Amino acid sequence: MYGDPSTIRKILTESGDTWAVVGLSSNERRAAHGVADVLQRYGKRIVPVHPKAETVHGEQGYASLADIPFEVDVVDVFVNSDLAGAVADEAVGIGAKAVWFQLGVIDEGAYDRTRAAGLDMVMDRCPAIEIPQLG
Hints:
By secondary structure, this protein is of the alpha/beta class. About 35% of the residues lie in helices and about 15% in strands. The chain has helices at about 5-15, 30-40, 80-95, 110-115, 125-130; strands spanning about 20, 45-50, 75, 100, 120. A 5-stranded parallel beta sheet has the order 2-1-3-4-5, sandwiched between helices. Helix 3 (about 80-95) runs parallel beside helix 4 (about 110-115). The longest helix is centred in the middle third of the chain and has 14 residues, at about 80-95. The chain is globular, with a radius of gyration of 13 Å.
């Protein structure tokens, strides 16, 4: 498993409240839309990152992580596994504290690189499932 309970708890409670959600668009049928809503309800600021740079859940969107003009604490990744490694590398490059790969998003090489760069990382998990369990 890529993300032990202590790492999951640390990311959700200690890593910071600004979460860039890569792959988040205004399409309400996509999982990212619902997960971003849950994160907001738990006090996280979500930052949509999508080529369309749409405003979602009242938050301005950006085309890429590099376009965000403020610090991002956690990068939550809703892209295909073959694209996720590049996003993780970008997260390291912008100085994020943690990377979270959603359910089904797996790239072991990216996990190893991200951890080696000093970031916390969870892979193949969903924060919307984990955060209510923190109690």
